[in-house]
Amino acid sequence: xTPPTTARLTFxxxxxxxLGDTASNFYFQAFNLFLAYxxxxxxxxxxxxxxxxxxxxxxxxxxxxxxxxxxxxRTNTRWGKFRPWILWGALPYGVLGCVMFAxxxxxxxxxxxxxxxxxxxxxxxxxxxxxxxxxLMGVMSPSSEDRTSLSSYxxxxxxxxALLIGWLVPGLKDFLTPAGGSPAxxxxxxxxxxxxxxxxxxxxxxxxxxxxxxxxPQEKGSLGRDLTDLKSNGPWLVLFFVAFLNLTNxxxxxxAGIYYxxxxxxxxxAIGTFNLVGFLCFIGGALATKLFTARWSRRSLMxxxxxxxxxxxxxxxxxDPQNLPLLYALNIxxxxxxxxxxxxxxxxxxxxxxxxxxKFGRRATGLIFSATVxxxxxxxxxxxxxxGWLLGYLGFxxxxxxxxxxxxxxxxxxxLLPGLFALAxxxxxxxxxLDEPQVKEIERDLASRKGGTNxx
Length: 456
What we know:
Layout: H1 11-42, H2 47-62, H3 64-73, H4 83-100, H5 108-136, H6 144-175, H7 183-207, H8 223-231, H9 234-265, H10 270-287, H11 289-293, H12 298-315, H13 324-338, H14 340-360, H15 365-394, H16 404-414, H17 416-428, H18 436-449
Helix pairs in contact: 1-5, 1-6, 1-7, 1-9, 2-5, 2-15, 3-5, 3-15, 4-5, 4-7, 5-15, 6-7, 6-10, 6-14, 9-15, 9-16, 9-17, 10-13, 10-14, 12-13, 12-14, 12-17, 14-15, 14-18, 15-16
């Protein structure tokens, strides 16, 4: 067994790890921001059917997350437990994403079947590569400070990917539409570019990271025992509910954005700039994480930053849609406040893995991270599905003139409803029990048990 090390992670390794989430977000954000719109306004599927699709498929596939997490915990290769999955999954991930936007010439029922099959295949590839990728952060260093810094790099890079998707896709899909072609051709050509970039970035992540934290040598694999321990891991259970609430908010607001700008604001192209400004502020917030954590505890930051983000989102409901400067101002506040929260919360997940090993004598990093991803995907699915269901219920007609009730529903999906979920997440974090002195004590105890040097 390799003892814990006090060596700090290098910039190159942190950056290499972060690029893995840039690659992930090329698909994640494309789906989050534009998939409902693509299916209704370009692929030609009924909005209610799209809502069901976006609910059923992610939740069905999300059940694989704990399975892949448990399998990766039990993977043993010369490259480690989690890195090999990134290498194995990179090419299928890229190829399937292109197939998803191939736009075959089929009837409505054929298109719906095609959408179910390809969306399912892409999400399975995403699980295979992204679940071990998330768990990798928990074993690259035994230090909570190092993991928080690593998490900051991860989410700065993640939202670089989100920025590129949110900003470039609206224009690229038009630019890459050939003369005489359709918007579907532009979407397909755009996703080919991002697919190639994704594969290259994942391979770079695999080649330039290293696993350092290993499970106790006496530990024997038992999925039943791991699940029992997980249910008794109080800090993780709190974060479980926080993840659900936050990602429901994210899936709903982000997916509703292009509808809001196309039908309520009346300027579809403005969504690109709106996303660009928001993601730049989000990245700025993510890069400022270390400044925040130097002054306040991660728990306190999660509470208040999440609440500020929620209030910024909800306030958009009361703004005249034509008052773009005020919408931008609220987006800037909400996005900057949200920026540090992914890095902080994922470092807290790594802390709960330490807590589980400290309390139960067993480490199940892959299961903890994969179960977290599972509930996140459930939240995203509910948020995205609500868009299709509510629009279908209100009588939405793709590319047509919308009734006042539809326009009001789109506004609710963009503001009050996601804001309420975000506010509930901020309240839930009050119940997170671990403070910084406890985390340090756990780190010291684990280092002592393994016969290594205490983390700095």
